[in-house]
Amino acid sequence: MKEAITLSTVDFTGAVWRKSSRSNGGNNGACVEVAFSGPLVGVRDSKNTAAGILAFPESSWAAFLGATACSPGSATVESCGHSR
Fold first, then answer.
1. Which site from 10, 35, 55, 60 is most exposed, i.e. has the minimal number of CB atoms within 10 Å?
2. Contact between residue 67 and residue 80 where contact means Cβ atoms under 8 Å apart
3. Alpha-helix runs per DSSP H in 1-84
4. pTM of the full predicted structure?
5. Confidence class for position 48, pLDDT limits 50, 70, 90
């Protein structure tokens, strides 16, 4: 049986956070940062890093990237050839 992942078992303290190269554009640096910690991907606000971290399983993060990578401005996930 897999161990349940809870917020108390997730530690992003030593994680290397990466910010999108597009965050330096016209949004005054406002963007999100991502980091990997074990089986999870953390996402946080790059301008307010102390506000908290959203943690997602790697499989969910991969699905998100796959759904958003099809083309800029795609209206729906279905228009990219992905199902919900």
1. 60
2. yes
3. 58-68
4. 0.65
5. confident
**CA–CA dist 24, 40 (Å, integer):** 26
The answer to whether 43 touches 32, Cβ cutoff 8 Å, is: yes
Q: How would you label 20-56 residue by residue, b for 16+ Cβ within 10 Å and e otherwise?
A: eeeeeeeeeeebbbbbebeebbbbbebeeeeeebebb
Picking from 60, 84, 68, 78, the residue whose alpha carbon sits closest to that of residue 22 is: 68
Q: Is the dihedral of CA 24, 28, 32, 34 positive or negative?
A: positive
Residue owning tokens 């993060």: 61
| End-to-end C-alpha distance for the chain, whole angstroms | 27
Q: Is the model's pLDDT at 14 over the cut of 60? A: yes
